[in-house]
Every structure is written in C-alpha cells, then in structure tokens.
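Hi L.,

You mentioned the student needs an example of a multi-chain input paired with its predicted structure. This one should do, with 893 residues in total across all chains.
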Amino acid sequence: MTGYIARRLLQAAGVLWAAFTVSFLILFLLPSDPVSIMLDAASGNGYVDPAKAAELRASYGFDQGPLEQYLRMLGRALTGDLGTSISSGAKVTTLIAQSFPETLKLAALALALSLVLGAGIATASVWTRSGRLRQLLLSLPPVGVAVPTFWIGLILLQLFSFRFFLFPAVGNEGFASLVLPAVTLAIPLSAVVAQVLAESMQTAWRTQYVETALAKGASRGRVITRHVGRNAAIPALTILGVLVGNLLAGSVVVETVFSRAGFGRLIQTSVQAQDIPVVQGLVVVAALVFVLVNLAVDLAYPVLDPRITRTARTTT
Amino acid sequence: MVAPALTVTDLRVAYGSRARGTDPATDVVHGVSFSVLPGEVVALVGESGSGKSTTAHAAVGLLPGSGHVTGGQILLGGDALDLTTLPPRAWQRVRGARIGLVPQDPAVALNPVARIGDQVAEVLRIHRWATRSQAKARAVEILESVGLDNPAARARQYPHELSGGMRQRVLIGIALACEPELVIADEPTSALDVTVQRTVLDLLGELTSRIGTAVLLITHDLAVAADRADRVVVLKDGLIVEQGVTADVLGNPQHAYTRELLAAAPSLSDVRRRPVAGPVAAAAAPESGVLAAAVPRVPVLAVSGLTKVFRLPGGRGQDASITAVDDVSFEVHRGRTLALVGESGSGKSTTARLVLGLTSAAAGTVRFDGTDVTVSGGGRGRGGRVDAAALKELRRRTALVYQNPYASLEPRFSVGQIIDEPLRAHQIGSSAERRDRVAELIDLVRLPAGYIERRPEELSGGQRQRVAIARALALDPELVVLDEPTSALDVSVQAQILDLLAGLQDSHGLTYLFISHDLAVVRQVADDVAVMRGGRVVELGPTQQIFDHPVEEYTRSLLAAIPGSHRPTRTLEGVIA
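Structure written out for the whole complex:
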C-alpha cells in the first residue's frame, strides 16, 4: 500500500516535470523573442527600446543558453518560485494563490451540482418503466453537451439577473454570485455524468446479480440503490479526472462571461497579455490539480470495488 | 389430494410488442401445462430455444426484456394465487418468500461489490424475517447450513473470493432462506465442474426435501434430470412433447424427440463415435519407455516432464507462484486421440497451450514428430526462446479449436474470410486456389456452400463450431488440439460435432489432443485418457481401462460424479436397447 502510493507520487512528479518542460519548450523556445513580446505587451505600441530589452534579457537570463535557462527556472520552480508576472510585476505564485480559492468554490459547487443532476437523470432513466420517458431522459445529455457554455451563461444572465433580479450578474460577492456561474458550468458536466452513468446503470441492470436481487423480492428502487448504483459508480469514477479538466477549461469561459476573478480569468488575461511566466505557472498548477485528482480517483477504486487490489492494478 | 405447489395451465409467452402479442406466431411458449406437487422435483428438459427457461422465468415473473405472458395461468400454492395477473408490488412479496430462484451461472449471479453475508441477509430483511442484527446472525447460520466452512469469515468475504461451487451454495442459501414453497433452479450446475455439480445438486435435494419445498429444475442435461427428478417434462419449440415419471419417460420414451435427446446424451448412451483403436501403442506409458520403445513409429506428440509456473501478483515466498503444470509426460500416436481430463484448474488447458507453443515452459520438452519444439525460458507470457522458423512450422502442422465458438470467430469477418485466414497468414496459394480450398473446407465440415458469405452472428452455435473446425483444418494439420470443443453446445449438436470430428479423424488420419472436463464425452471419443489434477497427470491409460478399472481414488470419484450414474441399471439397459 505504501509502496503503491510512493510509486504513484513518483509518477505524479514525472507528470509535473513533463508539464513544466513542455510548457517551457513551447513558450520560451518558440521562434519569437519573449522580451520583445513582453515590452510590446507592456507598451502596446510595437516600439521596443533596445537598452530596456537588453536589461530585461539579462534580468530574465535570456542571454544565457536554453539549457541554463531551463535548469535555472526548474531549480527555482522546485523551491516554489514560479517567477514574476511581466504585466503586473507580482509574483506568479501570489497571483495564483489569490485566484485559486474563488475558482475552487465555483468548481466544487459546479461539480456537486453536476453529480446530483447527472446521477438524477441516469437513475430516473433506469427507474422508469415508461419507454417514452426513458427516451426523453436519455436525449437530454447529448443536448447538454452540444450547447455552448457561454450561450447557457448568457441565457441564465438574461433570465435570472436582468429579468427576475434573483442573482447578481457579475462579481465575487457572496454565495448568490456563485449560483449562476456554477449552474452554467454544471450543465455540460452533468450531461457527461448522466451519459456515462446511464450507460453503466443500464448495463448493470441487465446483469444476473440484478435478477438475483429481484428474485429475492427486492423493489426496483432497492435494486437501483443497493446493487446497480454502486456497480455503475465504478466506470463513472473514471471520468472524474476528465471532469476536473473540463471544470478548469470551463472556468475560463464562465469567469469571463460573469466577470468573476479566478483561475480561469487569470488564464484568459495572462494569455491575452502574453504574460509568459504566469501562463507557465498556470500550466504547472493545472497539471498538479489533474495529477492529484487522478491519484485520488485511483485510491478510491479499491474502496468501491473489492475486486481491485492495489498490487493487482500495478501489474495490469 | 394435496394442492400442487405450482400449476401451469396452457401458458403462452411471447417476446416483442404487447400490442402484437396476441398474434400466436410471436409466441415462444405455445400452451404449456404441468404441475409440481409440494416436495416434488420436476425437471423441465429441452435444448436451447425449447422455451424451458422462458417458462421458468414466467413463473417467477422475471421474463427478460419484452417478454410477457399472452395466455394461460400460473397458480402458486394452496391459495392458487394467479401469478400472471400479479401487480409489481404483490410480486415483491412472492419472490424470495414463496418462490426462490437458483440462477444459472454462479460466477455472475452475486453482486461483486457486496459482502456475501449482506447478500444473504438482504432477502431476510426484505421479507421482514429478521431485524438488521438478527439477519446478520441468521445469514451466517444459512451459510453454515449450505456447507460453507468457517461461515462467519465467509460472510465478510466478497463473491470473487469464493469458488464457483461455494457461490452456488450461497445462492441456494439465498433461495431457501425464507423457506419458500417452490424453488426454481435454472441450470443450476451447468457452469460447474462435475464433482462440484454432484455435491451442489445433493445439497439442493437435501435442503429442499427437509423444508418440503417443491423444485422446478430446468436442465438441458437429461442425465441430471434422470438422477434428480421425480417427474420429467420434455419441451421442444415451446411445446411439451412428453411428460411423466422420470423412469417411464427416460426408460421408455414415447416421443421420437425424447429418444433423440437420449441418444445424444453422452452419459446415458454407450455409443462410441469411433471404433476402439487397435492395440498399437495403446499403453504408451511414457515413464516406462519400454512400451514406447517397442512401438516402431515416432509419436506425433511426445511431451516429457513439462512444467509451467505462474507468478502470482504480490505473492511472497511460498505464495509467490503456482505450478500450473507439474512434470507432465505423455505421447500421442498418429491417428489417435488422447483425452486430457480434469476439473477447472487442473492444468489441462495450460498443457495444451504449452504443446502449441503459445506459452513458455519452465522445464521439460515437447517433441513434435521427433523434433524438439519446446518454447522455454523467459517465463514472461509469450515469447521466450524458440527458433522462429521451427515455431512457424509447428503452427502450420498443428491447429486449435476453442471451447466457445461465440468468442473464437472474428465477428467482422465472413465465414470465408475466417477459414481463409490461416492460408493468408502462411501465404499459401493464389487467391483463386485459396478460394477453392475454402469451398472445399466448408464442404468438408458439411456446411452449405452459401454460408461462405455469412457472418458468425448469423450462425448457430453448432454451425460456428463447424467453421472453427474448418479453419483449424485449413493448413492440413497433423495434430489438432480440441479444447472443450462441445461444452458450449446443446446435446444433440454436441453429438453431431463429435461425429464430424470422428469422421474427419478417420478420413484425414488426424491426431487429436482432446481437452475435456466431461468424462462421458471422453469415453465416446478417446483412445487414451490422461487424468489431470493440480497440474499433474494422476492416471494415464487406454480409455477402456481407465473407465472400467480406475486405479486412482480421484479417477474413481470423477467417474462416480458423472450424472446419470444414479439411475438403476435396468432403465439404463432400456436406453441402450
């Protein structure tokens, strides 16, 4: 068990290193001069002062070879220093630390909503005896996946902020401001959850152990909650890692539409400003979130499914 | 007159839309009537598609998919409760409490993520036979009553930690927990080894007679029905062709179909598919070497000291590995059949894989026609050290027919492409020549020529196995390994495939290595028998000798477990006559 976690942590470190290295290669070694981009971004008029450029080059270490630059940055990153923002001059870690809690709140609420909604649709589609209702329920997820997030956001804003004044349209103030963005983010996510869960619940419903349970005299409800649900949760758990990726990507759109400060907004603004150190820091932090979620998912498998032992999983 | 536990009257069942259900053409059960008295065992026998399973599922209200009763009555117990008109909530009070179900395949019939004890307790909780804590204790008692060792520990285990036989015992415990009036056992042992099958059926018989429960036993195996049932109902295409007291129906069958079934049942008939081979190399006992030396010919296959060790994940020391095949030696001579018999885990299939070079051996040699073709070393799955050319030559001269023709044929290929594949792989002949060869092979396995364009899904199990045999024969092999070639098939189809294999052996001089757990089949086809247990060959000799004068205790217990052996000799003679 300890060996398993140690191995997984080592793998996680490998993924982080790869994320750092690939983002370094792309952002710093592309055939463009980061310093001119920075100065251009700072001045905004296309003029680059050569003296200022040389000074900046030296301070960022761009006058050194790529390998030295890379090793120096990696060394700094290992001590928790991801550099400073070009546009604001603030430390990258500070910027991320400020924006992250807002997005975490948003993502947590959206994830909870999407699980409830998705599981609800999936369960209802198995529960109902009516073929028509089942068809209707199962046609919802494809619609939810297909509709663009920003459009859902705009419709919700139109209805609940501008017509009924129920929730604020913008900002980070209080729980009420969280509701509309979270719902916007949750709708496409719940569609994915519903699709995967409905599929695995339908599969589980056709199994022999469900027949055994029905033959015991169990009601449909009991069979779904006690037998189908837990078995169907296992494939659904697998997509949780993907969902968190969707949440981060979705937060870019949602935080822009609702003008919320947060991780996604930081991504959007720093990419637009070509604030390279911040973008790289965001890539590494996003990779870290991914790695941690997937590690948690892997550790949760044996809890849900006694057939999976950790030793067996590493051999397959 | 005692009221029957179950009375089925003119039952009709159809699949498909309810609106069209009134059309008798869609029925799969066309008016079936029979009854089961309290404490009586009635067997519903028939082949796939006979409607036996549909009838049983109708009686417990669990028809799959679009299945529904279109006519007739199913009356339960003394109060003659009509099950065909029962609303869902009333059904919940009947299932588990008044009717128990023992399902077909214990491997998949228990919830894999719930503890054994909880799954037994659930039925008691549903019918309010016990409070939560009482149910827990009662579940342990039930597990003990079905013969599980250390029941308290078993109750905390999960299904995958139990063997197939133990799981079926658990399911019997669940079915009988509320002491129902009727138990429906749907092919309860067809997925189990023969010795386990016997003990499980013994248990079911013992418990039901103690409680006085009526049993409706669904089986395709006439021998099981012969051993276990008081009365037999023979079904064909959704109709009853014959029913009556077991000894009468099986001893003196009135209907041609019953006679056909009896003739096809391997354990009830003494028909040999081929004449017993001559004494040449009959007792090819490899250890002695004396007899082998006396035979002038080189055996097609000579296996000596073959050993295969599997490493277990996470095991340490003693538990780190299991010896699946342990010092196995035998010879097979040209044109003869050696049967490797044994139960699950005896190492018979692994031995076959070693012979074909599909896995590497830890020790020992495999000689094919005098040439050493052992795939050795490595130890890690396939690969290992072997001469690639020699291995390709071995692949050309040997062939394998798998157990399950539903899984062994590529579903996207046509029958022609499937049979052609070995020819293409070995680049034999032009495409025109290959086309002729495929047509010839299809004819050889007696499939209509038009089947060449069909896909496996359009074929029945028996037809699929014919395709698999044609594919095996494509390269004119000398040795064919048959891994349980008929165990997935109905008895009458099984008989046809065995006849086909016997005919091909005679006409082509084929040598067979016949892997089987079914001693009754082995008796019909094998010249020599090697009995395997725990990776070792415990007894080896000519078929007649093994069956008539078994030396080892284990062989004797296997023979005694063959269903049909409980029947009095008188009726058995009647069958043969």
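You could point out the following to them. Residues 24 and 70 of chain A are 7 Å apart (CA to CA). The two ends of chain A are 16 Å apart (CA to CA).

Best wishes,
N.
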